[in-house]
Each structure stands twice: as structure tokens, then as C-alpha cells.
Amino acid sequence: MALTLILIDLQEWIVERYAPDDGMAAAVAAEQARCSFRASGDLVIHVRHLALDGSDGGPDSPRTRFVDAVTVEDGEPIVNKHDRSAFANTPLDGMLRDRGVRDVVLAGLVTEGGIASTAVDALRLGYRVSVLLPAIAGNTPQGHREALNDLRNRGVTLRDWI
User: Fold this and answer.
1) 128-150 tens-digit pLDDT
2) Where are the alpha helices (DSSP H) in the chain?
3) Are 129 and 157 spatial neighbours (Cβ–Cβ below 8 Å)?
4) What predicted TM-score, i.e. pTM, was given to this entire model?
5) Domains of the chain
């Protein structure tokens, strides 16, 4: 398995707070990508942001649930994180390396937060990184554009679709 889709922070509270304009459209596109990856036999990993102090109620809390537009199927791991990057103090890198993954495709929220920081860490760790443009949303249009320009300059591939 050489390709993995990583769905980042597609949670209700993140859509509401950080991506109210485009977050749900990104989630719908992310779900389409998830279905395509599953049909191809590729790995899909969901990443969920949790408060380090537990003030959000933890992984089983209604406050931290994924949006209804995105399905988590059996066999799709969930990685809990407490920082912007999905790699920061999580088992994600080990999970990918154990499966022989070299290429990651990122989708989710928000461009200038979880997407950008995860992409930069993935590059640093030696992965080939793509961002699925229809399946991401930024906090602000300017922040979204600036983050994408920075990622492109670092060598991230910006994909219109899979």
C-alpha cells in the first residue's frame, strides 16, 4: 500500500469555528475522495483534534464528533492529535511506515492550520505530499491562498482531484 488519504479535522466544531463558509463543501468532497480511495484498496486515516486538557470531553464527546458528511468505516484508523500537525506526538508516522506508505494525500480543515502543518511535517519525514484542493477549506480566503502558495513552493502537489 503506497498511497494513503489523510482526512484532517473534519469535525463539527472546527467547521463551525474555523471554516463556516466552505468547510461543509470540503467535507463532502473529502467523503467522495474517501470512497474512491476505499474502492481502490488504499488506506484512509481520519485525524481528530482533541484538547490536551480534556476540556472538550475527549474522543467520545459530541463536541469532538466528525461531521455527518464524512463516514468512518471499519478498518479506517482514527488518529487523535493535540496540536496542528497530525504527526506531532501521534503514531501516524509509524502507522504509515509500517504499511509501506510513501505518498500521502491530505484533505480536511483548515488549510492554514492542520493541512499546512501536516504537509510540512510529512515532507520533513520524507513523504511525497499532495493536497486535494476541492476537499480543503481555509479560515480566510487570504490565509488559504497564502498557505497554498507556501506549500506549492515547498514541493507539495496541489491536486484538483485524485
Assistant:
1) 999 999 999 999 999 999 999 99
2) 12-18, 23-39, 92-98, 116-124, 141-154
3) yes
4) 0.97
5) 3-159 (3.40.50.850)
